Amino acid sequence: MKKIVTILALAAVFTSCKNEAKDSTEEMSSEVMTPAETRQDEMENKASINITPISHATSVILWDKTIIYTDPVGGAAGFEGQAKPSFVLITDIHQDHMEAETLKALQLGETKIIVPKAVQEKLPQDLQKNLIVMNNGDSQDFMGFNITAIPMYNLPESPDAMHTKGRGNGYVLEKDGQRLYIAGDTEDIPEMRNLKNIDVALVPMNLPYTMTVEDAAKGVLAFQPKKVIPYHYRGKDGLADVEKFKELVNKENKDITVELLEWYPTKG
């Protein structure tokens, strides 16, 4: 009789332990995410990159709590209602990218302006204290971002091209695993095609200054950003056909989001 009682007691203890282990396993399994769920959670927790077009190549970028002005021209009125920039990026010396009068009118104080050497040489003395010079291939950490200066130039290369290699900068900004590419005045160059893991890209398309809609689409399909935004698309013959650009990109790759923003409110 004692032997039977002992066996029953052991069985009860075993069953209890087994149920507790099962409950513990179920509780753990409900807390552990699958790899797919982890990737989705990481994507949802990433800061958004919001781009507000001002005009042509000029924009205000809100990335988490950082505000970046790109190529501010056209006077301070275009930035009315916008928060002051954390820093400014300038790509080239031409008047649709660099304008000392606008920089002064924005009353930047000690705000830093990242520029290529050619821009630094053309800006007045009273702005020199604000400047951080970066040239093609330079990379530095600044305000929580890694910033790399990317070449931007015309093809075929020639000394009398509108945009010669080494003068202006495109930029890749990276923070918390996200990467933004601002192409500047460029064509479908190898340095653009070789980019990797770009989340958002601003790409130009206007003749005779940069490239055709077709070449822009070919370049984008080569480096495959998650999202591409056409900008800087006013040429000598008016505005480029950005709807065609979108059609060409998505015909070959439906996974690339083509976002069309209003860069020319007056259609000029």
Please explain how this structure is put together.
By secondary structure, the chain is an alpha/beta fold. The protein folds into 2 domains: about 1-30; about 45-260, 4-Layer Sandwich (Metallo-beta-lactamase, Chain A). Helices cover about 30% and strands about 25% of the residues. It has helices at about 1-30, 35-45, 100-105, 115-120, 190-195, 215-225, 240-250; strands at about 50-55, 60-65, 65-70, 85-90, 110-115, 130-135, 140, 145-150, 170-175, 180, 200-205, 225-230, 235, 240, 255-260. The strands form 3 sheets. Strands 7-8-9-10-11-12-15 form a 7-stranded mixed sheet. Strands 1-2-3-4-5-6 form a 6-stranded mixed sheet. A two-stranded antiparallel sheet has the order 13-14. The chain is globular.
What's a quick, concise take on this entry?
With 268 residues, the protein is α/β, with parallel strands linked by helices. It is built from seven helices and 15 strands.
**First and last CA, distance:** 101 Å
Rounded to an integer, what's the Rg over CA atoms?
27 Å
In CATH, the homologous superfamily of the largest domain goes by the name Ribonuclease Z/Hydroxyacylglutathione hydrolase-like
How many distinct helices?
7
The total of beta strands comes to 15
- Give the overall pLDDT as a whole number: 87
Number of domains: 2
Helix and strand run:
HHEEEEHEHEEEEEHEHEEEHE
Largest sheet, strands/sense/barrel: 7 strands, mixed
Estimated helix fraction = 25-40%
CATH C-level label of the largest domain: Alpha Beta
Shape descriptor reads globular
> What would you call the structural class?
alpha/beta
CATH architecture of the largest domain: 4-Layer Sandwich
Indicate the multimeric state: single chain
